[in-house]
Amino acid sequence: MTDALHSRRNILRMALALGAGGTLGGLTTACATPTGLPGAGTLNIALNRSLVSLDNKLNQFDAAVTVQRAVRQALTRLTPDLKIQPVLAESFQLTAPTEWTVRLRSGIRYSDNSPVQVEDVAKALESYRDTKGGFLATFFPEWPRVVKVDDQTFKLRTDAPLPVLDYLMANILITPAAANKAEELQTGVGSGPYVVTAADRGAGNYQLAINPNYWGTRPTVEQVQVRFLPSETSRVVSLRSGEVDVIDSITPDSVEQLRGLPGVQIENRPGTRITHLFYNFRKPAGHPLADVRVREALSYAINGDALINDILQQAVIPVPGVVPPGLSGAAAVGGFRYDPAKARQMLTGLGVRDLSMKIIWESGEFAGDTQVMEAVYEMLRAVGVRVTLQQFEPGGDISAWRQGRAGDWDLLANGYPSSTGLAITVLQGMYAGTAAKEQTRDTYHGYVVPEATQLIARASAEIDPARRTQLLTQAQQTVWNTWPAMWAFAPKAVVARRERVTGMAMGANNSYDLTQLRLAQ
Amino acid sequence: MSMIRYLAKRLAQSFLTILLTVSTVFVLIRLAPGDPARAYAGPLSTNEQVEEVRRQFGLDQPLIEQYWTFLKGLFSGDLGTSFSYQAPALDVVLDRLPYTLTLAISAIVVTTLVSIPLGVWMARRADTRRELAANVATVAGQSMPEFWTGVMLLTVFAVLIPVLPASGFTTWGGLVLPTVTIAILQIALISRMVRREMVANFGAPYLTVARSRGVGERLLTWRYAMGNASVPVVTALGTRFAAMLNGVVVVEVVFAWPGVGSLVVRALETRDYPLIVTTVLVTSVLAVLVQLLVDLCYPLLDPRVRLGKAVA
């Protein structure tokens, strides 16, 4: 039966009302002009990954650090040139081989006006320790114990000497103990210059405003909008149209597009990540790649300059050793050289003929990955090596292959980050393999060289800075002598910004301090 | 068949459809390559850490046990925790749903408002030059892939003439370009269908009789002919709308629209099992509800239709 209520006209009206309701329900953000341009006092940042957290227990991707640290702070921080600087700590001193004494800065309060306390530090360490799959946890050889001395002072004690604890603690963000837990914290109280005024986890949009209780110099940018734009094209278009002020994670292709555009500036500096073509160290004795001389010979086939200039558009720098050159403790212990004639000569001299290699990598592991690998294919073919390329999609089975559980391979193109800015962290993660670790396939592609492992362990526990540097250099030379990689480079941290944003001091870890930024009127 | 019996039967069918759909997805994604525990724990994690993550998310359990846990959760409203968001998967999807609903409703409203008058206009001018021009335009609209249309609109209206936002939904203007991108294809499809139905009805004897009785052309078109054409047209609109609710993936990606479509892309990349299944569940429920609503509209649109029976 068709009554008045169910007339076509009423149905249409209801449909329109539903449509309008749904539309209204979806609009959750503001502070933008009708064309999407940010307001005069608002900075718009677009991130390549969703900022599902304002904590960094799990999500330590580079650009997120900028926002996370605007809300929460650590005892120390890495300066743009990778030096350590106290933040919540007034002093952070090594007072015994296994003991650091920390004094909290006096008068510091969180955004809810509660004081920063020693208990908060203990709880923060506990939360980071208990986070399942925590990325940062892998950098702590052991978790320090907090021993309270007084309301302002405490000691961080370890069983073994941990002379880089001040660097490690730069990654541990402090939150009031009562509000902290071993899960990602998406909003909440912090001691940083900004507070979260609106958060839409679904869209990955956050709105920050100045923390009225901030203990440091008041920022000049009143509001910060953080947006999640996963597609690089979207980020570039949004920057070009002026809709966002800063974008990160830019490939060389996009840098080319943006370079020279009116109103747009590119910021870059050498990064803390190493990307390399790493050999599979699980090859049995007798296999050509088990011979260090073969590994060395193959490296002469790679024309690094061509890759850097023609494909990577100078968005990377060559690595003169085994860790990125900007890291504290990095030593220039070697260098990759292009000499295909020498490569052929060495391979022939070693009796290596008809060598075939399988190279694997994951899509998006580094900018221009596919083009680089295709070029490497040609370069190796030019010295008589047959190459098979196998690319994995993100989230696929690359991990099982890396561990040698899914199949055999010869070379892996991938990277390793340093969130501490220290060479020792990278060395520990990549080159401190042991037989026990290899049992569980937890070494870095089977790299187990006891001499290197011992030197790294000694450097890790060495308190004397000069002696530590010496040990680190020895360790890097030892590693270099094993020719672990065919070629290596350090991608630069690249950010593009509108010219109305000034004062950006880009850090090597691809982050910057929001309090330093200015917005032109 | 009474309305209540019909509804009960349809709801039971819908429930089975949804259960079968999510169960199939549940099994298939687990058979697909990739290890979510390792993806979640990160490439630098140790085996021990990966195992811990696997235990934490119950991935170390046999498939049948995982499925049983899922079914129990389904009926208690707990669809698991998203691996990548570390939050209840249902909450994550519901956070995104308003954006997809907004876009889909906006697109279907524009489609309806444009395609029906356009289709009628074409039908009334069938086989004329003006109709030919409209035909060419609709064929073009039907042929242009959404990613291309989206990029072109983006280039013109966000970059060359920056009058509309390029990405996301930070302002009402942000709705325009994705809506138009979706609507162009849908308008082309629906208007051609409306034209076909209307042309068939214009030639039907009942209209000739009505016309001979002096019924005006406007009434003939909008009440008589459109009345008969409304069932297939509403069916088509409902189907298109249901498809949009399943995530207008390409458009959401092009315009960085924070909806379910872009969420499911991310969930697939990270092998976020709970999120994938929850997305499928939520969008299936919506799609089934839309289809049910369309079915319920039939008797209102065409009195000859009785629920549960074919048109006589």
How is this structure best described in words?
The complex is a heterodimer of chains A (521) and B (312). With 521 residues, chain A is α+β, with helices and mostly antiparallel strands. In chain A, 29% of the residues lie in helices and 21% in strands. Chain A contains 15 helices and 20 strands. In chain A, the strands form four sheets. In chain A, strands 1, 8, 9, 10, 11, 12, 13, 14, 15, 16, 17 and 18 form a twelve-stranded mixed β-sheet that branches. In chain A, a hairpin with a 2-residue loop joins strand 4 (89-96) and strand 5 (99-104). The longest helix of chain A is centred in the N-terminal third of the chain and has 19 residues, at 8-26. The model of chain A is unreliable at 1-30 (pLDDT under 50). In chain B, helix 1 runs antiparallel to helix 13 (273-301), helix 5 (89-124) packs parallel to helix 13 and helix 12 runs antiparallel to helix 13 (273-301). The longest helix of chain B has 36 residues, at 89-124. The mean pLDDT of chain B is 86. The interface between A and B is large, with 72 and 70 residues.
Task: Chart the SSEs and their pairings.
The complex is a heterodimer of chains A (521) and B (312).
Chain A (H helix, E strand, L loop, with lengths): L7 H19 L15 E6 L14 H10 L4 E3 L5 E3 L2 E8 L2 E6 L13 H13 L14 E4 L4 E5 L7 H4 L25 E7 L4 E6 L12 E6 L3 H9 L5 E3 L3 H7 L5 E7 L3 E6 L12 H8 L4 H8 L4 E3 L21 H10 L6 E7 L6 H14 L3 E7 L5 H5 L8 E6 L6 H9 L3 H5 L10 H12 L3 H16 L4 E14 L2 E2 L15 E2 L2
Parallel strand pairs in A: 1-10, 1-11, 15-16, 15-17
Antiparallel strand pairs in A: 2-3, 4-5, 5-7, 6-7, 8-9, 9-10, 11-18, 12-18, 13-17, 13-18, 14-18, 19-20
Helix pairs in contact in A: 7-9, 12-14, 12-15, 14-15
Chain B lengths: L2 H29 L4 H6 L5 H10 L6 H14 L12 H36 L4 H15 L2 H15 L15 H27 L2 H8 L4 H29 L3 H6 L5 H10 L3 H29 L11
